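Newbie here. four chains, one complex. Structure please?
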Amino acid sequence: MRQDERDFLKGYDPSVFPPAAVATDVAVFTLQEGKLKVLLLLRAEHPFQDAWGLPGGFLQPQEDLAQAASRVLAEETGARGVYLEQLSTFGRAGRDPRMRVVSVAYTAFVPWNRVEVRTGRRTREVEWFPAHALPRPLAFDHAEILSTARARLRAKLEYSPVALEFLPARFTLGQLQGVYEAVLGRAVDKRNFRQKVLKARLVRRAPGVLKGRHPPAAFYEAGPGAREGAIYPPFRWDR
Amino acid sequence: MRQDERDFLKGYDPSVFPPAAVATDVAVFTLQEGKLKVLLLLRAEHPFQDAWGLPGGFLQPQEDLAQAASRVLAEETGARGVYLEQLSTFGRAGRDPRMRVVSVAYTAFVPWNRVEVRTGRRTREVEWFPAHALPRPLAFDHAEILSTARARLRAKLEYSPVALEFLPARFTLGQLQGVYEAVLGRAVDKRNFRQKVLKARLVRRAPGVLKGRHPPAAFYEAGPGAREGAIYPPFRWDR
DNA sequence: TCTAGAAGTGTATATACAACACTTATTGGC
DNA sequence: GCCAATAAGTGTTGTATATACACTTCTAGA
């Protein structure tokens, strides 16, 4: 045991403070080939060895919750510099077969190809899975965590600039529309979409165009209506 | 130590699962005299003895998180049968001077006079405080928990039927409008308000009237637009 | 009987939403 | 070089919703 752990235990009396380990699990979403995907890993250790699950691990003595989530994500998948947001806490007795574990779940939304992932500690493989075709069964209560995370994402899409987190700093309106369509799972009208994001100043014109097998597509970037935490007159996108 | 606690510790190895106690704190809001109020207690024990704080306590071995919140609330304030909702988890190292404690915060919204409160365990007094005039300093990081809770409440008011939780089963439109005004902290237009809640079928006419020093006020009750978890075209109430 | 207090009620204007189709620039394959 | 495929870009109209705004009525209590 390291010194910081010993300090941490000082005065620890399990009859007063019944022990429960605190862990964190991280659900990272991205968009790839027009589909919403989730980062999962193949567990190399018990419990749930050989099952797919979310990156997760235990809180260390001097670490804040968000720091722990960030560290665990980096250790197990190599993903770094990801902005994490607290989702919810899952603590059903029995969710971990070893002992009582309460897990604080975090989520992140990242641009495809902006984070490099690799196999890490306690991990045999790391892979992106389509959110609607997850391997079964998942470790622990990770299926429940993921369904909570998807519901939150859908809700946030309508009143917050969260869609921009899936894209690089400059993007085309077609790409942005693709984010909405993938998350909501339905097509939206292009003309109404463009009118709305521009009028709400969610995005503004950026220099340059993207060339492709189509007319040049103008680049856009986050506009003044996309300040962190901004709340809109909600976007409902054709019902 | 009781047997269930011993079972619980079986296989517990602090070098693998660094210990952090899991606690819960509960922020109960109500409306009283047209003001948003919060239930606080005067702490009878260390730490923060003689400071006001939220009802809170440690998770017991076989208890779910919501059960723990409900039990702690009942033990310390006497409030029972309150519907609790998970708010967020607070785990900054050092937030509890004794040791590392991660606290899962819950919130509830109750009708004034529907819950009886009394002084309970570890408590010297229990009292409702106006949300904009809290005693200072509050125990632990309870000021932060409360400000998160108020922000959540304001957000929910606009897209969910949460306002009805502050009222008894039958209420007048004036009372409902009072909830919105107290939480949002500003006046709303009566004619627009009535039109909107009726058109959205958030409420419907109930039998009877409330007599007072004014024309009889019709009773209303939750309408079909207020099903648990319903999401609206958001109410923004005059800007 | 007078006063205070809240209940109740309608309209006009401005903004936002939803539905809808065609033309154009470019690339890659033939 | 030509053609096919692909996505970019662009306006209008009807409908619905949001906002601003003022007076009368009923009742209880002084």
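Moderator note: Residues 189, 191-192, 196, 199, 211-216, 233, 236, 238-239 of chain B lie near DNA strand D (CB under 10 Å from a C1'). Chain B has two domains: 3-144, 157-226. Thread marked as resolved.
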